[in-house]
């Protein structure tokens, strides 16, 4: 009997005759389309699509998915187009095939760019039909099983991509069997020598441990029976790549081979959720549990639908015993993940694994839409895949999944982008906390927002989720654009004020349009932004707007620009001289960066101080508020307790210490350099006076550039 006929007969266990006929037609259509094409191994190409369909059939995937598996390389490798497939097999099959197909008609500058664009295309297709990724995973699995005939470089490239992307997607979708096979096959292809040595070492250790494993299993079996619980206990072995990864970790998390293989693992399959908790009590009464090592994923399932109780016991001779407790259905979902939706022939799109998978794909699409380009998108996705999860709660009890070491800012963006963009404080377990504080499992987080708040660039260094990172960058870019427009408008109106004109009130719209078009701008906002960014002189624009009075407009504007805030992106305080309210200041225009504020005596602007095109007269607003960094240099007598006394006086005066440097000048004298945050010059003078009064302080002053 031919391979296809044998396969079609096997489908009768769960598909009807009409559905099987569609799969059969797809096979023969693909066989004709691929013609004489062969795989690198020399086998007819059609053996690959058939093998992919068999993998999907083992998951009981529907007839559309099986037909798409048969046809999945037709668009990419033959002259057949999507429209022709749609005509022959319907819209659903054609869309699945197109979603899996790579982009072939576009030239890319690098292999990485091609990979990124193909992944982006697949992600968009996944958002419309989750089966796209399941077909793709089956395709990749068969390719991994048949890497042998390929050249070494290509094997390594495919293995690396599989470990970085497809193994992680399988894990995210709860498809544990695929996840483990991807990792082990990827490891063997990428590091063949390491894999062989580790495999031999593991085999040797397990043969020595066999008797002890059997003894522990028998003890667990007897204990469960004593509690009158029907359950199946299975010895569970860690797969090769997970052992290798734990050995490769750095710092305190790095483990020796012996530490990993000395841990014994078992899985208990119970008949009901109630029995799962009874099993937990039974094993805890046999061996004492390790504190803090119990995780209840039945009460709080993972994002991919995984449910199980995990506990670690102190076994004989203090050997750690890892136990997973779950029902049979939970075990199937843990292994099949999203595919269990079809395995159980569920028509319920609200099933746990399916709804969570759709939520993940929705988040993936949001990342794609907000990322700058496909390369950024795929890098952010890779980062998200590699993170362990924690689970925290909203004040209303909703569970939010985040990567380990995520902050309250990550939480805010996970709830809603607008909450992230307007947050300024938080409460963790009903206590005030910093937005940058790292969250822990089980915490309740409340975010406090205000309409006038905006994201801070400093958040980018602490957030862990791609969603937060991309949203912050996107918001900052938008704010920068608006800030540039606002600054440009202020500068243009300040120039026009010489002749009593305002761009928003005294210039006719048609004339305004002719001016920005003459200067090659699309609209007035683009022109104002160019002024704010220092790309366009406000005097040039002003003379074009009012040409009849151009002679009255001077390049040197006497009226100063008022600095009332530094929260925006286009007005910044220069780090070289740290100006604070009360200091005489100048504003220096820098292309693409806006207006930088310097102390008027700053050495860095000495050469351009008289350049009227770059230097603007600016003044502090009487109402300016905020905290402003200032550098201090203090010469003190050598005294170990002195710094604590100085820090105490600074804090008492309502200032914060941001940075400290300590240098020994000689055995009797030291130099302290501090950066503190003050409100203005008066506040600074009060602090200097307070510290100068200390006996051990010989000299104190600002460390100016």
TrEMBL record:
Molecular function GO terms recorded: GTP diphosphokinase activity; guanosine-3',5'-bis(diphosphate) 3'-diphosphatase activity; kinase activity
InterPro entries for the chain: ACT_dom, Beta-grasp_dom_sf, HD/PDEase_dom, HD_domain, NT_sf, RelA/Spo_fam, RelA/SpoT_AH_RIS, RelA_SpoT
Reactions accelerated catalytically: guanosine 3',5'-bis(diphosphate) + H2O = GDP + diphosphate + H(+)
EC class (word): hydrolase
Assigned EC number: 3.1.7.2
Keyword presence, Kinase: yes
The keyword Cytoplasm belongs to this UniProt entry's keyword annotation: no
Keywords annotated in UniProt: Hydrolase, Kinase, Transferase
HD domain sequence ranges: 45-144
Pathway: Purine metabolism; ppGpp biosynthesis; ppGpp from GDP: step 1/1
A GO cellular component annotation in the UniProt record: plasma membrane
Role summary: In eubacteria ppGpp (guanosine 3'-diphosphate 5'-diphosphate) is a mediator of the stringent response that coordinates a variety of cellular activities in response to changes in nutritional abundance.
Family per similarity comment: Belongs to the relA/spoT family.
NCBIfam families: spoT_relA
Name this protein carries in UniProt: guanosine-3',5'-bis(diphosphate) 3'-diphosphatase
Source organism phylogeny: Bacteria, Pseudomonadati, Pseudomonadota, Gammaproteobacteria, Cellvibrionales
């Amino acid at each position: 009997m031919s391979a296809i006929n044998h396969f079609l007969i096997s489908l009768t266990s769960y598909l009807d005759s009409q559905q099987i006929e569609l799969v059969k037609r797809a096979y023969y259509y693909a066989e004709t389309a691929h013609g004489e094409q062969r795989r690198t191994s020399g086998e007819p190409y059609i053996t690959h699509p058939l093998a992919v369909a068999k993998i999907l059939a083992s998951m009981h995937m529907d007839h559309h998915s099986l037909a798409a598996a048969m046809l999945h390389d037709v668009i990419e490798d033959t002259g057949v187009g999507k429209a022709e497939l749609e005509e022959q097999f319907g819209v659903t099959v054609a869309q699945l095939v197109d979603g899996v197909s790579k982009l072939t008609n576009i030239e890319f500058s690098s292999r990485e760019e091609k990979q990124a664009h193909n992944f982006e295309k697949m992600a968009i297709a996944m958002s419309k039909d989750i089966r796209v990724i399941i077909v793709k995973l089956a395709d990749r699995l068969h390719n991994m099983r048949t890497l042998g005939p390929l050249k070494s470089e290509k094997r390594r490239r495919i293995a690396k991509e599989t470990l970085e992307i497809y193994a992680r997607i399988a894990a995210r979708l709860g498809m544990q069997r695929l996840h483990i096979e991807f990792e082990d096959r990827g490891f063997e292809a990428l590091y063949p020598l390491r894999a062989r040595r580790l495999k031999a070492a593991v085999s040797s250790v397990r043969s020595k441990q066999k008797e002890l494993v059997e003894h522990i299993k028998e003890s667990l079996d007897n204990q469960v029976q004593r509690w009158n619980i029907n359950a199946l206990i299975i010895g569970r072995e860690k797969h090769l790549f997970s052992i290798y990864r734990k050995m490769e970790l750095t710092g305190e998390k790095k483990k020796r081979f012996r530490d990993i293989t000395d841990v014994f693992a078992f899985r208990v399959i119970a008949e009901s959720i109630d029995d799962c908790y009874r099993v937990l009590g039974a094993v805890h009464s046999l061996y004492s549990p390790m504190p803090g090592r119990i995780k209840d994923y039945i009460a709080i399932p993972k994002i991919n639908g995984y449910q199980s109780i995990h506990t670690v016991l102190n076994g004989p001779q203090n050997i750690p015993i890892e136990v997973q407790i779950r029902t049979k259905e939970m075990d199937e979902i843990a292994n099949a993940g999203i595919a269990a939706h079809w395995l159980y022939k569920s028509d319920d799109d609200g099933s746990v694994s399916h709804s969570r998978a759709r939520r993940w794909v929705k988040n993936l699409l949001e990342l794609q839409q907000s990322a700058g380009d496909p390369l950024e998108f795929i890098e952010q996705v890779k980062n998200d895949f590699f993170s362990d999860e924690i689970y925290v709660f909203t004040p209303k009890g909703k569970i939010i999944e985040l990567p380990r070491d995520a902050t309250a800012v990550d939480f805010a963006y996970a709830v809603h982008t607008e909450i992230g963009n307007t947050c300024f404080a938080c409460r963790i377990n009903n206590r005030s906390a910093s937005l940058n504080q790292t969250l822990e499992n089980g915490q309740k987080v409340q975010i406090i927002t205000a309409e006038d708040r905006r994201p801070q660039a400093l958040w980018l260094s602490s957030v862990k989720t791609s969603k937060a990172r991309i949203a912050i960058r996107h918001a900052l870019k938008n704010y920068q654009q608006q800030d540039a427009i606002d600054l440009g408008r202020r500068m243009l109106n300040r120039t026009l004020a010489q002749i009593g004109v305002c761009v928003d009130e005294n210039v006719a719209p048609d004339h305004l349009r002719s001016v920005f078009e003459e200067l090659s701008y699309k609209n007035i906002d683009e022109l104002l932004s160019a002024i704010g960014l220092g790309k366009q002189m406000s005097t040039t624009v002003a003379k074009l707007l009012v040409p009849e009075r151009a002679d009255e407009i001077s390049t040197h504007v006497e009226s100063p620009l008022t600095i009332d805030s530094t929260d925006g992106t286009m007005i910044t305080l220069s780090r070289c001289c740290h100006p604070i309210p009360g200091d005489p200041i100048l504003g220096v225009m820098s292309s693409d960066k806006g207006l930088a504020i310097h102390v008027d005596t700053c050495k860095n602007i000495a050469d351009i101080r008289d350049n009227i095109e770059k230097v603007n007269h600016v003044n502090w607003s009487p109402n300016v508020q905020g905290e402003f960094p200032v550098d201090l240099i203090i010469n003190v007598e050598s005294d170990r307790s002195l710094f604590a006394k100085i820090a105490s006086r600074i804090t008492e005066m309502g200032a914060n210490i941001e940075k400290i440097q300590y240098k020994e000048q000689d055995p009797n004298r030291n130099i302290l350099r501090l950066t503190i945050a003050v409100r203005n010059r008066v506040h600074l003078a009060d602090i200097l006076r307070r510290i100068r009064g200390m006996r051990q302080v010989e000299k104190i002053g600002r460390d100016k550039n």
